Amino acid sequence: MHSLEQLKQSLEGAGQAHILQFWPELSDLERDAFLQDLSQLDMTRLREHCEGAARAAAAPSGSLDQHLEPVPPASIGSVRKSDSKALTEWEHEGLLQISQNRVGVLLLAGGQGTRLNVQYPKGMYNVGLPSSKTLYQIQAERIHKIQQLTDRKYGSKSTVPWYIMTSEFTLAPTEKFFKENHYFGLEPSDIVMFEQRMIPAVTFDGKVILQGKGKIAMAPDGNGGLYQALVDNKVLEDMKKRGVEYLHVYCVDNILVKMADPVFVGFCVSKGADCGAKVVEKACPAEAVGVVCRVRGVSQVVEYSEIQQETAELRGAGGELVYNAGNICNHFFTRAFLQDVAETFEGQLKQHVALKKVPYVDSCGNQVKPTKPNGIKMEKFVFDVFPFSRNFVAFEVVREDEFSPLKNADGAATDTPTTARNSLLTQHCRWATAAGAALCDEHGNTLPAASASAGDSAPVQCEISPLVSYFGEGLEMLKGRTLQTPLILDEEKAKELQAQ
Questions:
Q1: Measured distance CA(213)–CA(18) in Å, rounded
Q2: CB atoms < 10 A from the CB of 445, how many?
Q3: Pairing of strands 446-447, 210-212
Q4: Confidence category of residue 64, pLDDT binned at 50, 70, 90
Q5: Between 204 and 276, where is the model more confident?
Q6: Could you give phi then psi for residue 334, rounded to 5 degrees?
Q7: What is the number of other CB atoms lying within 10 angstroms of the CB of residue 152?
Q8: Is the pTM for the entire model greater than 0.70?
Q9: pLDDT class for 115, splitting at 50, 70, 90?
């Protein structure tokens, strides 16, 4: 623990003496807590962080357009365009790697559900499915199912460890939630939760913002904080000990995520890639998603705001957008690559400036809730390691099957609980009808397959548990049947239908 005098000198040296301006007003208890917080700060890094933030916020953003080119076709696989033989081979390769316990999944779950108007982690959100399952439960059950499918094929006893990166805000509630739900049937020792770092929010002139008289305003360091957190929490050592060589990294809010997707993993392994990204075709030129492309010959994600409109609208000979590979925060990394990043490249990761409204205490000690941005939060993004890859690949998937994020509360135009729920139910209706089932309402009226389209109209209430089907397989028991909706096809119901 620093002595107060040492601390004052260190803060002065870092240009942050104002942090202790309310010290005389704090109680002994508040002082102890504040000292504890301040002792965690690395003063040299603090100075660099504050000066860097002020510089970055003032810097004009240059145009990248003349340096852009699409990812070369040789580095892209596609669910739609690759032939079925290749897709089957990739899937077998992925399942083989899973059977040898060489594949792990890593969930980025540092964010709270603030935009959903809830104060708990997003993974605990229930979008209103007939089963009332949360995102965490759906994802856990998909892990369970992919292990089961693998073991059935290879006679193995596979384990896909689940690494979950949380933040100061989400760690305790997530741990509690998993414990209360008996880890959703997974082995607790195969779920590894760890915390990303928090960093101070800074004013435009590079001063740390005080949230209270004895509290610094802190924020998670973005999902790119993953690479530092892997080191801080010895996660790479854990992977090595378990024999995990490949990692599927994804974001908590995608209700359609295929956990440890064997096709994606198999594609990346077959290509000898150290780094891969799933992409979806952009819905339109103006869609606000980052684009996976090359800049000066180096693979990376370019944010929507960094591309000029005319470049975003460029089309190829077949009428398709030239820059249409939308990034969906769904990635593949080898452990060796992550080790490289941790040892060599972490310090070179790009810092992104986010201008935020940060509540603070003014010089008189009054709480202020700003109405316009007053602070800078510096963030790193998980995709900022792509430029360090030696063999980067992209894998295009079908949006309706694999991407429906939950970002906003109902009432917003897109990415709401309703759109997420509808995407999943619609997918399950497609699976049921593809398996040869007809769906009817409670009065026995057959429902046309067309009514199972996504969008705003409520789809048919047909939900298939991930424990029954991972991605539409294993539904032979539905062939030739008329199923009354609303329907929850769980393991019990599936067994009942098989027995008939």
A1: 11
A2: 8
A3: unpaired
A4: confident
A5: 276
A6: -85, 155
A7: 11
A8: yes
A9: confident
Token pair recorded at residue 125: 């959100």
Round to whole Å and give the CA distance between 196 and 449: 45
Q: Which are the contacts of 143, defined by CB distance < 8 A and separation ≥ 6?
A: 105, 160, 162, 186, 259, 260
Cβ–Cβ contacts within 10 Å for residue 215, how many? 13
pLDDT tens digits, residue range 347-377?
Answer: 888 888 888 889 999 999 999 999 999 998 8
- Token couple for 427: 């997918």
The residue among 181, 164, 169 whose CA lies nearest residue 118 is 169
235 pLDDT higher than 80:
yes
Residue 117 contacts residue 412 (beta carbons within 8 Å): no
| CA distance linking residue 148 with residue 402, whole number of Å | 21
Location of structure tokens 């696989």: 77
Structure-token match 């992919």, residue found: 146
Strand ranges across the sheet with 202-203: 202-203, 375-379, 352-356
Task: For residue 414, count other CB atoms closer than 10 A to its CB.
Answer: 12
The single residue listed with the structure tokens 């993004």 is 381
The two tokens of residue 325 are 């590979």
3-state secondary structure at position 168: coil
Measured distance CA(331)–CA(348) in Å, rounded: 20
Residue 62 has pLDDT above 80, yes or no: no
Q: Tens digits of per-residue pLDDT, 301-349? A: 998 888 889 999 999 999 999 999 999 999 999 999 999 999 999 888 8
* DSSP characters over 452-465: G--SSSPPP-EEE-
Distance CA 110, CA 119 (A): 13
pLDDT in tens, 403-415: 999 999 999 999 9
- Pairing type for strands 103-108 and 162-166 reads parallel
